[in-house]
Design a protein that fits this description.
UDP-glucose 6-dehydrogenase activity, six-stranded parallel beta sheet, 14 strands, UDP-Glc/GDP-Man_DH_C, UDP-glucose 6-dehydrogenase, alpha/beta, UDP-Glc/GDP-Man_DH_dimer, EC 1.1.1.22, single chain
Length: about 475
């Protein structure tokens, strides 16, 4: 029986290995992590991450050919194929701080593999890593090999949180990069055979190592660029009276462009986009490509501009102050159908409002009060470091209240902000909400999910990104 081990039981490792176990019943899959709490959760009825469809798969395979364990060295030693899905956070100090990826955990995993391995192994990069990481890992393993042979492959993930299981079941492509040697090609074929259990062969792309590593960074940079492009256009739409939804629809009909990732919003979030672009910027700078680095920096600058513009719009609309006012925040996760809050725009929006002494009442169907408190207590980039390096007991903010009902969050509020596009927010009784709010009552739609005209008829003053402004708002411009 082929044995697979995945180091790292997070958003990538857990779902990916669960689907491999489901689709390949003859393969034994072990997911290992040093976090006892995380592994305990994977072995319980309350999984550590929320992803539609994941729970059913885990329950079906767990204990059969899918195992979650803290016995890292044991499973690494026994495995034929080792996926590495550990954190590659952005460095917060030293050379490349604020841009370069920190490969401390990757290097530690490589040295551990070299210490415990007793047979030849295929090592698969699953984390998003800088170009040439495979070469560095290869050197570590080769110089500590004790006669054991390793083949390094790059197999970046292209999952979208909220649809991860669907993406794993029907991927538009599986990318495998390896060495152009007989041993390297044999390793590529071995991994290809795993995916071939359910992925059509034409959707499995094989490249060299460097192309596979760079393709992941490039894909995320291109997607983030599209979001920043439409968000930049949303500011112009508001200034001219155009409707960004109509503009993006017209642009998306061009077959050379297409409609995806053209929804204007308060900004992009998630664990990958900003981190990967910063990494790309650093690689460009290291290779003397200053103009290319500046180009990609601008994608992040526009994203920051959009979040700042949203906060400024809220404050300027409400008589230039939100001090002492209750603002309801509906949605804290960075997108619907996930509890992930990494780099969510809600953090910057909430911090901006708290900075003006607003009182926040927050509701999200999948994010806990502890997580919200912690996110608003952390410094930038701290979220991607191990749990023991994050705030253990976040400072409880007197200006912050987390509730478990949208109507409770909005009761007595001066304004409400929609920051995550949860489906339940589209069907709220806004007349009931309006009746229970302070007047004038404001709605700031950061996801363009409400019927603006209907809400205005109810009596709300509505700001929806990239849409025609209320007369009230035109007289109170937001200066970002």
């Amino acid at each position: 029986m082929v044995k697979i081990c995945c180091i790292g039981a997070g958003y990538v490792g857990g779902p990916t290995m669960a689907v491999i176990a489901l689709k390949c019943p003859a393969i034994e899959v072990a997911v290992v992590d040093i976090s006892v709490a995380r592994i305990t959760a994977w072995n319980s009825d309350q999984l550590p991450i929320y992803e539609p469809g994941l729970e059913d798969i885990v329950k079906q395979c767990r204990g059969m050919n899918l195992f979650f364990s803290t016995e890292v060295e044991k499973h690494v030693s026994e495995a034929d194929i080792i996926f590495v899905s550990v954190n590659t956070p952005t460095k917060t100090r030293g050379l490349g701080a604020g841009k370069a990826a920190d490969l401390t955990y990757w290097e530690s995993a490589a040295r551990m593999k070299a210490d415990v391995s007793k047979n030849d192994k295929i090592v698969v990069e699953k984390s998003t890593v800088p170009v040439k990481t495979a070469e560095a890992i290869e050197k570590i393993l080769t110089h500590n090999s004790k006669g054991i042979k390793y083949q390094i492959l790059s197999n970046p993930e292209f999952l979208a949180e909220g649809t991860a299981i669907e993406d794993l079941f029907k991927p538009d492509r599986v990318l495998i990069g390896g060495r152009d040697t007989p041993e390297g090609q044999k390793a590529i074929q071995a991994l290809k055979e795993v995916y071939a259990h359910w992925v059509p062969e034409e959707n499995i792309i094989c490249t060299n190592l460097w192309s596979a590593e760079l393709s992941k960074l490039a894909a995320n940079a291109f997607l983030a660029q599209r979001i920043s492009s439409v968000n930049a256009m949303s500011a112009l739409c508001e200034a001219t009276g155009a409707d960004v939804t109509q503009v993006s629809h017209a642009v998306g009909k061009d077959t050379r462009i297409g409609p995806k990732f053209l929804n204007a919003s308060v900004g992009f979030g998630g664990s990958c986009f900003q981190k990967d672009i910063l990494n790309l910027v650093y690689i460009c700078e290291c290779n003397g490509l200053k103009e290319v680095a500046n180009y990609w920096k601008q994608v992040i600058k526009v994203n920051d501009y959009q979040k700042n513009r949203f906060v400024n719009r809220i404050v300027s609309s409400m008589f230039n102050t939100v001090s002492g006012k209750k603002i309801a925040i509906l949605g804290f996760a960075f997108k619907k159908d996930t509890g992930d809050t990494r780099e969510t725009p809600a953090i910057d929006v909430c911090k901006g409002l708290l900075g003006d002494n607003a009182h926040l009442s927050i509701y999200d169907p999948q994010v806990t009060e502890h997580q919200i408190q912690k996110d608003l207590s952390m410094n930038k980039l701290d979220w991607d470091h191990p749990i023991h390096l994050q705030p253990m007991s976040p400072t409880v903010m007197k200006q912050l209240n987390v509730v478990w009902d949208a109507y409770e969050a909005t009761k007595g509020a001066h304004g409400l902000c929609l920051l995550t596009e949860w489906d339940e927010f589209k069907t709220l009784d806004f007349k009931k909400i309006y009746d229970n709010m302070q007047k004038p009552a404001f709605v700031f739609d950061g996801r363009n999910i409400v019927d603006v005209q209907k809400l205005r008829e109810i009596g709300f003053i509505v700001y929806s990104i990239g849409k025609r402004l209320d007369g009230w708002l035109k007289d109170m411009p937001a200066v970002a």
